[in-house]
Specification:
By secondary structure, the protein is an all-alpha fold. The chain contains five helices and no strands. It has a domain of 72 residues: Multidrug-efflux Transporter Regulator, Chain: A, Domain 2 (Orthogonal Bundle).
C-alpha cells in the first residue's frame, strides 16, 4: 500500500506516518526498489499499534523503546513484557481517575436535571 492509502485507511496524515517512522515509533517501512514506501501487512500492523497506543496516551518514548526492543530479538521479551505491563498500570490509573470524574459529573448532571424540572437548585448542589 502507498503512504496515501495507509493514511486514508488509518485516518492519520502522511506526515504523521513519516514521523512515526523517522523517530522509531514504527520500524522502517518496506520500500520498493526505487525507495518508495510500500506498506506490507507487517508495516500496517505496526501503524495500527502505534495509532492505538498513541490514542490511549502511551508516550512516544515508550513506543520507541518497544520497537527498539522488538528489533533486538527474543532476548528482550522480558523487557517488552515489563514495558507493556507498566504502560497498562499507567492507563488503569488514568482510567480510575476518569471514572471518578465521570461519576461526579453524572451526579452533578442529575442534580441539574432535577433543578430544570423543579426550578430549584438546592445549596448543596454546587458542592
Amino acid at each position: 500500500m502507498t503512504i496515501k492509502e495507509v493514511s486514508e485507511k488509518f485516518d492519520i496524515s502522511q506526515d504523521t506516518l513519516r514521523y512515526y517512522e523517522r523517530v522509531g515509533m514504527i520500524p522502517p517501512v518496506t520500500r520498493t526498489a526505487s525507495g518508495i514506501r510500500d506498506y506490507q501487512e507487517k508495516d500496517l500492523g505496526w501503524v495500527e499499534l502505534a495509532k492505538c497506543m498513541r490514542s490511549a496516551g502511551l508516550p512516544v518514548e515508550a513506543m520507541i523503546e518497544y520497537v527498539k526492543l522488538t528489533q533486538e530479538g527474543d532476548s528482550t521479551i522480558p523487557a517488552r513484557l515489563q514495558l507493556l505491563t507498566e504502560q497498562r498500570e499507567t492507563l488503569l490509573e488514568q482510567k480510575a481517575k476518569i471514572d471518578t470524574t465521570l461519576e461526579r459529573l453524572n451526579y452533578k448532571i442529575g442534580r441539574y436535571e432535577i433543578a430544570v424540572k423543579t426550578g430549584v437548585l438546592t445549596w448543596n448542589d454546587e458542592e
